[in-house]
Amino acid sequence: xxxxxxxxxxxxxxxxxxxxxxxxxxxxxxxxxxxxxxxxxxxxxxxxxxxxxxxxxxxxxxxxxxxxxxxxxxxxxxxxxxxxxxxxxxxxxxxxxxxxxxxxxxxxxxxxxxxxxxxxxxxxxxxxxxxxxxxxxxxxxxxxxxxxxxxxxxxxxxxxxxxxxxxxxxxxxxxxxxxxxxxxxxxxxxxxxxxxxxxxxxxxxxxxxxxxxxxxxxxxxxxxxxxxxxxxxxxxxxxxxxxxxxxxxxxxxxxxxxxxxxxxxxxxxxxxxxxxxxxxxxxxxxxxxxxxxxxxxxxxxxxxxxxxxxxxxxxxxxxxxxxxxxxxxxxxxxxxxxxxxxxxxxxxxxxxxxxxxxxxxxxxxxxxxxxxxxxxxxxxxxxxxxxxxxxxxxxxxxxxxxxxxxxxxxxxxxxxxxxxxxxxxxxxxxxxxxxxxxxxxxxxxxxxxxxxxxxxxxxxxxx
Amino acid sequence: xxxxxxxxxxxxxxxxxxxxxxxxxxxxxxxxxxxxxxxxxxxxxxxxxxxxxxxxxxxxxxxxxxxxxxxxxxxxxxxxxxxxxxxxxxxxxxxxxxxxxxxxxxxxxxxxxxxxxxxxxxxxxxxxxxxxxxxxxxxxxxxxxxxxxxxxxxxxxxxxxxxxxxxxxxxxxxxxxxxxxxxxxxxxxxxxxxxxxxxxxxxxxxxxxxxxxxxxxxxxxxxxxxxxxxxxxxxxxxxxxxxxxxxxxxxxxxxxxxxxxxxxxxxxxxxxxxxxxxxxxxxxxxxxxxxxxxxxxxxxxxxxxxxxxxxxxxxxxxxxxxxxxxxxxxxxxxxxxxxxxxxxxxxxxxxxxxxxxxxxxxxxxxxxxxxxxxxxxxxxxxxxxxxxxxxxxxxxxxxxxxxxxx
Lengths: 463, 406
Hints:
The complex is a heterodimer of chains A (463) and B (406). Chain A is an alpha/beta fold and 463 residues long.
């Protein structure tokens, strides 16, 4: 039964009904929602004036044209009689929250998260282990051992600072440059390598290009290549978490380039209107492949878009792991408590090339890259902090470098030796069950290989 | 998009209700008078409006599913959705305008029925708890992306795209994401509990953007299922199967049947299997294959063929477009030796091409005549020319006749 909001004819002067067509009386009484459906003559009633809830409320309103305030459902604002365009502020944009200076010293002691030594050491070791793995796997692509790789140089702080501020069961939707989140959640090197090599141990069964990691156990949704598609998906997952009273947040990572996609706009708007416990984490690293931010947007970055959607937003120094941690921690607390989205724009710099298919010297100077590598790097900033706390020293640094390299090399050699998965796995998981027509295709490949198998690299694949 | 759509649907609802006089009055007396003059009588006005190109044939009342109730197509959809919300506490329904009941009335009453005042940890005065049937912003890529996300957590997501004509912004999310979720993750993740419902097909006056049948675009996408019912009874069972299926499904609802198709439908939930075509009439001489509204067109063609040509037709409702039931169609063509496939969507690249290609591969030596496809022309769907565009019974009959005489 359809409930229309009726304004009973008996409430209006008859003359006005005839004159104006019934809407726009001197005084409109709008029935409160609780008395919906009680109109006895619905056929003669006219639809009530729209009582659009704004911002999140259903309320009774008394309309009167004698009252000079705006009545538009679409905005809650005052009139102005001066013609003035709002000037977007890009010279002095949203300020960048930081806790440490570039030398790793706490600036404002009240912002120090006072994290215990073990936790901060875990930050450091996650970032450096990731860095070491990146170097080795980048090289392995150059040597033709894996087909493709993407490094995370310079952005380790964004991954680890945010991952550390979440619960282990918070669901992560990433783009492709968030391996540090998995690293922080103790995803084994063996599995990173297995995915890059597409070997039998790959949880993804060898189906995707390298760095398209996924881990159900660690609540990290498998990466996909199309950009920004994860954004509205993360919002849906957050909505489901809210409905389930799961007390979980969903975090969604994306770059400043992906933020230009329609899916980003869709995700932001849905998260706000549907009141979802989600953290949108934008890694603004200055480049989308070769496209600098000056060609990606004209406004004040991504953080400035948040308020346009009604989303609480902050910009942080992405190379300051404590700033990232503090912002994510607070956003998580409030997102879950208040069921609303948060937008964190972490400013950072992509020190590496976009991928092994890219040579960034074609579009930026080596000097620029060196500045960030040497003068403003999340790992060295945290190391300075550790040193100043007396929690780390040169000897430990040397030992750790040796140990981490050894760990990576071992995993690497093991991954190289393993076979690839059985070619039958080409056909499974398209649907939960294999359709009969697809099974026929699988059988036809098997028959083909019986005759022509010598032309295929079967020796590298599991039997 | 939605504004024009709801205007179109408003007109459609009035027309389908058969209230000709009512329609003329509300169009604006002046306009109607000018337009209809000189032939301004009620009867002539009705003749100027096209009659439907088909007659809906209800199936006999089903006996095996308990008590039945007379329902039209949109009511059978509501019933399926109602059953789903009742059985599955994680199920949610969302899209443009679904909260008040939807532009085609498919979700009428559901929002209020399932409002148990669920506590929402939010501002005090927004605890309406209407979190199971809700409107989304006007954004199809958002609707489908959001639905995928819900399904990834294991909850049941039933998304509505207001008209199939507007599904294209969501094409990337459907093809690149939903369809590939399980495969690309090695079955770590999936969005099998996602179902997308959308009104589909010609409606008499829908023109380019309220008449499309886009099933062929999705047929080329392994990983999703595409299902199209011909009737209320079929719709409810197939929709319930889609919702419960562990793969993302697209369920296209022939909008011209929303009011026009009325039959007895079980009140309780029941399932009709996916990927199984139905032989709704056995025959010896020709196999006719169609889906959705067009099934009723070919039913009539079969009667015409019997009467005028003495030809016995086997009629198959394909029901699931992908993965499609090759075996049932093959078995039929092996018997009859002749195949005619008909759909409203344009000829080139339409799903009839896939059926034709597969059947000639599998049943080449059984064929007595080339496979015939009677489809829409390779044009956008026109407005005023709709009666000429659609593959009506005369075109189908003519093609059949040529096949018989081959």
